Amino acid sequence: MLVDISLIEHLGNARLRIADSEIIPLMEDMKHRGLLQPIGLLQLGDKYIIRFGNRRLEAAKKLGWKTIDAIVSKDEKNLHEFIADNVAENLHRLDLSPLELASVCFKYKQDGFSIGEIASTLSLPKGTVKTAMRIATRVPEEYREKTKFMTPKNIHNKEGFISAAVANAILRSRLTDKHTKELFKLAKVEELSSMKIDLIKTLISQGNSFKEAVKLSNDYVVKSVCFAVNKKVLEEQDEAFTILAKKILKGEMKIIPNLL
Which residue, among 165, 214, 159, has the nearest Cα to 194 in the 3D structure? Predict the structure, then answer.
């Protein structure tokens, strides 16, 4: 049946962000061949909630269509269950961002769900739910859209993005707002590890500037120090680096810039 596009909403739908690169080719196809497959909608009163076909709906909007062919379900299924199914589908089939997941989690929270209940309903680990909500509220705004969950599907397309795990590690470091922003800026252009973030934090706490801390935490610099101090052969540098890193984190050793 044809449905008025203005009546279609994304209530609770996890797929909020669709790149232009996904839409433009679809628009060209729909412009010449029309809509080959209807979208799926759930009817709630006078409104409709998108079930599947988000990209087709967005393409139709950009083409200026007023109506779209849809398969409409009037199932009185529990709305929370519908949202959970929707999240699961997007999470497994698409590139769901922490912000998109957080928007759903906050809807559940407003309805009185605890973190554990949200995780159970969405069939996700509590840590994933907490991470998404933390990113949506605590990551500097200019880096939230650039933070994403790294999966086997997108691990090779991470340039310019920050992994949710790295974002979480930065937030856990509890640095000043200024240093936190500097770390996120660095994470956009350089792949950071939890160890390196901890090293930078420790070096800053020892009186080094952010720039000095980053330089000192660089693997090559630290390995060079390890090699010089411990007289290790080249093959043993990795082990020496680990020993030194642990000493730095425990406060047993302080690296001073002018000694390098």
Answer: 165
The token pair that represents 89 in the structure block: 């589908």
Q: Which domains, ranges and CATH numbers included, belong to the chain?
A: 1-76 (3.90.1530.10), 79-192 (1.10.10.2830), 194-260 (no CATH)
The number of beta carbons lying within 10 Å of the beta carbon of residue 80 is 17
Provide the terminal-to-terminal Cα distance of the chain, rounded to the nearest Å. Answer: 72
Token couple for 180: 């936190």
* Residue 98 or 249, more confident: 98
The region that residue 45 occupies, defined by phi over 0 for left and psi between -120 and 50 for alpha, beta otherwise, is: left
Strand 39-44 and strand 67-73: the pairing is parallel
Q: Tokens for 14?
A: 């996890």
**90: confidence class by pLDDT, cuts 50, 70, 90:** low
How long is the chain?
Answer: 260
Q: Which residues sit opposite 2 in a β-bridge?
A: 69
pLDDT by residue (tens digit) across 105-158? 888 888 888 999 888 878 888 998 999 999 999 999 999 888 888 765 545 456
